[in-house]
Amino acid sequence: MGLFFWDMNNIILFDDDHWKSLLPMTFTRPTADLRVGILTIREKWEKYLDGTGSYITQDYLSVKFPIHIEEINFVINARYLPNKRIARLISQLEINGALLHDEILVAAKMKRDQFEKLINNQQLDEIDGLELADTFDEDDFIMRPHDIFRLNANEIRKDFDLMTVGRVSAAIPQNVTTSGNANIFIEEGATVQPCFLNASSGPIYIGKDSEVMEGAMIRGPFAMGLNSRVKMGAKIYGATSMGPFCKIGGEVNNVVLQAYSNKGHDGYLGNSVLGEWVNIGADTNSSNLKNNYTEVKTWDYSNDTFKNTGLQFCGCILGDHTKVGINTMFNTGTVTGVSCNIYGSGFPRTFIPSFSWGGKQGYSTYRIEKSIETAAKMMKRRGIDFSEEDKTILEHIFHYTSRYRHWEN
Fold first, then answer.
1. Distance between CA atoms of 281 and 249, rounded to whole angstroms?
2. Cis peptide bond upstream of 24, omega within 30
3. How would you label 45-79 residue by residue, b for 16+ Cβ within 10 Å and e otherwise?
4. What is the pLDDT confidence band of residue 139, given thresholds at 50, 70 and 90?
5. Which end of the chain is more exposed for a tag (fewer CB within 10 A), N or C?
C-alpha cells in the first residue's frame, strides 16, 4: 500500500472486516467514499475534525486511494457517521487513546509507531490506552448498502446544518413556489427554473452550478451536488440525494445517487442506491414493496446468501458502471454488481453478479475488455480520464466475482 507524508492535521479512515457487507458499493471505493446525505463519509469527518482524510482500504484499491500518515493521526472506522457528540469525543482523545463500540474500534489518536502496529494487525488489547465508550446506536454507523438510503434523511439534515451555518443562500427566484424557505439553500451558480420546492418536512440543498428545470416538484429532505440536473416535471420525494454530475427525471422516493449517474427519464425508483456511472433507461420501474408486505431480503456478500434487511420498503442496489435498458422491471430488493448490462422483458433475478449481460431470459458474461472500453467512453464524455488504476480495479472485480457467474462453469 502506498504511503505518503505531509505536515497537516491527518484523518485516516479504515475499512474494517464488515466491508464485504457493504458490497457492491465498496467494490470500487473505500467505505469512506460512500455518500450518505449531502457529503461522503470522508468529507463529513474532514469538516467535523477540521482535517484532511485518507484511507486504509483493500489492497487493490489502495493505489487509487492511498494512505497519508503523520506523526499524529486520527484513525477512524469509516462505517461510523460523524455527529457533534462523536466528533467531540474523538477530538478529546489523548495520544494512544481510543473509542470502542461492542469491541469494534471506532476511533483512536495514534502516533506513527502506534498506527503501524494497527495496520500490521496487532491485537487491540496490545495497544495502550483503549477506553470503552458505549454511546453509539444503530443510526451512528452503516452495516449494509440499504443503510445508505435508510439513514439518508437524518444525514441530509446534519450535512445541511454543517454546510450552511453562517452562510447566506443565493436568492430564490420569485417565480419558484416554495414552502419552508428557511430550510432552502441555493449555492451560487445554480439555476432554479419555475418549480415547486417544499422544505417544510426537511431541508433542500441545491449545489453549485446545478439546475432544477421547470415544472419539477421537490419535497425535502433533498440534496443535489455540483453540476447535477433535475429534469422537467420530475417528482422527487425525500430523502433523496444526488451526488455531483447526476440527473433525475420521472418519479423517485428516498434514493441516493453516488455521482455521475443518471435516472433521467420517466419511471419510478424508490428506496434505492445507485453507484457511480450508472445509467437507467426510460420507463424503467423498480418495486420497493412486496405484495405480501413482508420484510425485504437482499443479497449479502459477507455470507453469500439473501439476508433480511428489516425493512418493508427496499428497492434496488446498483453497483458502479451498471446500465439498465428501457422498460426494465426490477423486483423488490434487487442487487446488481459492478458493470452489469440489464435489459429485456420480465423481472430479472434479484441478485445479478458483476459483469452480467442479459435479463430474465438468461445471462452471459460482459467481457472485461468491452466493459473497460464502455467505461472509458462514458467517463470521457464527462471530461474524466479512465486511468490505469481504474482498469486494474475493474479487472480485479471481474476475476473476484467470477465465482458468482455460474454460467461460466
1. 11
2. yes
3. bbebbebebbbbbbeebbebbebbbbeebbbbbbb
4. confident
5. C
Mean pLDDT confidence for 379-384:
93
Quick one: which of 362, 331, 353, 355 has its CA closest to 341?
355
Q: Provide the CB-side half-sphere exposure for 375 (13 A, CA).
A: 28
3-class DSSP state of 262: strand
Which residues are paired to 3 by β-bridges?
67
Where b means 16+ CB within 10 Å and e means fewer, 123-157 reads: eeeebeebeeeeebeeebbbebbbbbbbbbbbbbb
Integer Cα distance of 62 and 19 in angstroms: 14
Please report how many Cα atoms fall inside a 13 Å half-sphere around the Cα of residue 101, on the Cβ side: 14
SS3 content of the chain, % helix, strand, coil (to 5): 25, 30, 45
Of the candidates 344, 350, 339, which has an alpha carbon nearest to the alpha carbon of residue 393? Answer: 339
Residues 6+ apart with CB under 8 A from 293: 312
H or E element at residue 85: helix 84-91
Question: Residues of the chain with pLDDT > 70: what percent?
Answer: 94
Predicted TM-score of the model (pTM): 0.94
118-137 per-position pLDDT tens digit:
777 645 444 554 555 566 77
Which triple of cell numbers denotes residue 10?
A: 491527518
Long-range contacts of 135-139 (CB under 8 A, 24+ apart): 135/85, 135/86, 135/89, 136/80, 136/86, 136/101, 136/106, 139/81
Evaluate if residue 257 carries a pLDDT over 70: yes
Please answer whether residues 56 and 21 qualify as being in contact, where contact means their C-beta atoms are separated by less than 8 angstroms.
no
pLDDT at 13 > cutoff 70:
yes
Please report how many Cα atoms fall inside a 13 Å half-sphere around the Cα of residue 298, on the Cβ side. 33
**Dihedral angle sign, alpha carbons of residues 232, 147, 43, 400:** negative
Looking at beta carbons, which pairs linking 266-274 to residues 24 or more positions away fall under 8 Å? 269/315, 269/316, 270/313, 270/315, 271/146, 271/149, 271/311, 271/313, 271/314, 271/315, 272/149, 272/315, 272/316, 272/317, 272/318, 273/25, 273/145, 273/146, 273/148, 273/149, 273/316, 273/317, 273/318, 274/318
List CB contacts of 227: < 8 A, sequence separation 6 or more.
207, 208, 209, 210, 244, 245
From the centroid of its chain, how far is CA 140?
Answer: 16
Element (H, E) at 162: helix 152-164
